């Protein structure tokens, strides 16, 4: 249950993060609500697989998304991805414990995906860590790696000679891919603009 304590930790962190004034000293809440729309739009314009609606719906569901800056949005996307991946670990375990519903090939694939998703969870925790220390290149590489891993899990069910069994994890793989794509796009945007420092400390100059 370590992930629960991680979530509590990160939630406190998030609260702290969003309670501190950000870029240009503008107080939280005055940052334009358009940021969400604009960010999702900008990302969708840059990639054909990026879903504007998925981006908007996912981020809108989190109240803090309405009152933050780009860094905050990236954290929200990574936290959502982490929560998603953690839930998928449980989903896969339930499928495996369901008893007899799957053929041996599917079971082997599910076991492979379980390993992948356990790895994904720790990779996302680490990605959030390096992101918070503003190591955007590493965060970029690790979030990209997670996207590759969703493809590996999904592709496993296709076997060597084309489609053998339908993947029971298509929705999960798609959701995680899209959430990571949001984070990745925002990380790219952050590397393009001059950096305002991440303000998570209490000391104001
Ligand atoms: C964001 O986009 C949605 C859907 O396109 C629209 O309904 C909403 O008014 C937009 N919000 C802002 C702040 O532009
Ligand atoms: C995964 O994330 C998507 C998008 O935010 C959400 O709609 C879905 O309910 C989440 N699924 C789980 C199992 O957490």
UniProtKB/TrEMBL annotation:
Family (UniProt): Belongs to the PMEI family.
Source taxonomy: Eukaryota, Viridiplantae, Streptophyta, Embryophyta, Tracheophyta
Domain (Pectinesterase inhibitor): residue spans on this chain: 31-186
Stored InterPro entries: Invertase/methylesterase_inhib, Pectinesterase_inhib_dom, Pla_a_1-like
GO cellular component terms listed in the entry, alphabetical order: extracellular region
Coiled coil location: none
Pfam family, one: PMEI
Signal peptide region: 1-25
Chain segments annotated as transmembrane: none
Alphabetical keyword list: Disulfide bond, Signal
Name of protein: Pectinesterase inhibitor domain-containing protein
Organism: Liquidambar formosana
GO MF, one example: enzyme inhibitor activity
């Amino acid at each position: 249950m370590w992930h629960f304590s991680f979530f509590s930790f990160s939630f406190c962190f998030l609260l702290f993060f969003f309670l501190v004034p950000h870029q240009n000293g503008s107080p939280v809440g005055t940052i334009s609500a358009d940021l969400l729309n604009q960010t999702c739009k900008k990302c969708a314009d840059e990639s054909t697989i990026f879903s504007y609606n998925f981006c908007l719906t996912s981020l809108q569901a989190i109240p803090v998304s309405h009152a933050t800056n780009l860094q905050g949005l990236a954290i929200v996307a990574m936290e959502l991805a982490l929560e998603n991946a953690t839930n998928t670990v449980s989903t896969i375990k339930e499928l495996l414990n369901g008893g007899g519903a799957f053929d041996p090939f599917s079971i082997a694939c599910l076991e492979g995906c379980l390993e992948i998703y356990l790895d994904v969870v720790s990779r996302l925790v680490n990605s959030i860590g390096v992101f918070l220390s503003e190591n955007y290149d590493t965060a970029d590489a690790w979030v990209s790696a997670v996207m590759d891993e969703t493809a590996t899990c999904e592709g496993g069910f296709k076997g060597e000679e084309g489609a053998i069994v339908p993947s029971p994890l298509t929705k999960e793989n798609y959701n995680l891919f899209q959430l990571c794509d949001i984070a990745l796009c925002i990380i790219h945007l952050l590397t393009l603009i001059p950096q305002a420092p991440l303000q998570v400390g209490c000391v104001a100059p």
